[in-house]
Design brief:
Chain B: Pfam families: COMM_domain. Chain B: This is COMM domain-containing protein 6. Chain B: Belongs to the COMM domain-containing protein 6 family. The complex is a heterodimer of chains A (242) and B (83). Chain A has two domains: 154 residues, no CATH class; 76 residues, no CATH class. Helices cover 49% and strands 15% of the residues of chain A. Chain A is built from eight helices and three strands; from the N terminus they run ααααααβββαα. Chain A has a three-stranded antiparallel β-sheet with strand order 1-2-3. With 83 residues, chain B is of the alpha+beta class. Chain B has a single domain, classed as Roll (Nuclear Transport Factor 2, Chain: A). Chain B contains one helix and three strands, in the order βββα. In chain B, β1 and β2 form a beta hairpin. The radius of gyration of chain B is 16 Å and the shape is flat. Classes of the chains: A alpha+beta (242), B alpha+beta (83). The interface between A and B is medium-sized, with 16 and 15 residues. β1 of chain A pairs antiparallel with β1 of chain B.
């Protein structure tokens, strides 16, 4: 299954090309990506291009740390939302325009979340980003970034599923009813339950009352529900899903 | 303690009394205290909202609270006598 990247996302991620090139002039204020693409020179490993070198050189350890830095920003964006100051600091450190960093990080967040969501394989991941025209080294770094962060991103994404009210706690009380408006001289045991529920940070409580035999029936039903997990039918399905 | 306030603001529609039920019980044990002997009164008020929808509102009182509750009604009855 391939990722589908929109034109805007391709443009955002295209900014990462700046990380894989050498010999860019350091003018970060022109346009969205700084210097127009025409003056970028793709340098070989360790070779600086003409003019003042700017940005990390292809094949150097700083490409690894640059991708790592942007990857960290991308995951932070997912965890906590936009952090413009962190992007500006990264832009200064990497010698790229701040806007380029911001758009690149947004594109990277999309790439990482969609890949994690779909549990995309290596082949499909590489095929999907092939259209961006990155170097092999950058492609490998991006795939590693995806693998390293996949578990945490999936954990965050799992919290976005719709939720019903969930169990928080339970209080119970055993009472004996002695009289009512309609009937005197009684000895009726009852169980009063206060069920505390949570839903998206809202707390609610329901008070219920029942007699001991209904409570026993309820307990038996719940035990039966749990017991279903141990039947061959459920065991087979769970085994096949793992 | 009452569920309808005697305030005629539109945010709090005046519910009207339909019926009252009560029962008296003794709490014997709970998840926080295993040995109790705590009598209480449960009151259920049947009320109707302005549209006619009927709901039950239930609440519990300790014996002292109930005695106070009862005293309010005795006072109301006494005042009505003088009107």
């Amino acid at each position: 299954m391939l990722l589908v990247l929109s034109e805007a996302q391709k443009a955002d991620l295209g900014g990462l090309l700046l990380l894989g090139t050498a010999g860019l002039t350091a003018s970060a204020s022109r346009g969205r990506w700084g210097p127009p693409g025409g003056s970028a020179v793709v340098g070989g490993p360790g070779r600086a291009g003409p003019g003042p070198a700017a940005g990390p050189v292809a094949g150097s350890p700083s490409l690894v740390s640059a991708v790592g830095e942007l990857g960290r920003l991308a995951v932070e964006l997912l965890r906590r939302g936009a952090a413009p100051r962190a992007c500006e600091a990264a832009a200064r450190k990497l010698n790229i325009g701040a806007e380029a960093v911001q758009h690149g990080v947004e594109g990277l967040t999309y790439l990482l979340t969609e890949s994690s969501k779909l549990m995309i394989s290596e082949i499909d991941f590489q095929d999907s980003i092939h259209v961006l025209g990155f170097s092999d080294e950058l492609n490998k770094l991006l795939f590693q970034l995806y693998l390293d962060n996949r578990k945490e991103i999936r954990r965050i994404l799992s919290e976005l599923a719709p939720k019903l009210p969930s169990y928080h706690s339970l209080e119970w009380r055993l009472d004996v009813q002695l009289a009512s408006r309609s009937l005197r001289q009684q000895i009726e045991p009852t169980v009063t339950i206060k069920l505390h529920l949570n839903q998206n940070e809202d707390q609610s409580a329901r008070v219920l009352q029942t007699d001991p035999s209904t409570l026993l029936h309820l307990i038996r039903q719940l035990e039966q529900a749990l017991g279903e997990m141990k039947t061959n039918h459920c065991r087979r399905i769970v085994r096949n899903m793992k | 303690m009452f569920v309808s306030h005697l305030d005629v603001s539109s945010r709090c529609p005046l519910l009207s009394f339909v019926d009252i039920k009560w029962k008296l019980g003794v709490a014997m044990s709970s998840d926080t205290c295993r040995s109790l002997k705590y009598p209480y009164v449960t009151v259920t008020l049947k009320v109707a909202d302005p549209s006619g929808q009927i709901t039950d509102k239930s609440f519990e009182m300790t014996i002292p609270q109930f005695k106070n509750f009862f005293r309010q009604f005795k006072e109301m009855a006494a005042v009505l006598e003088t009107v």
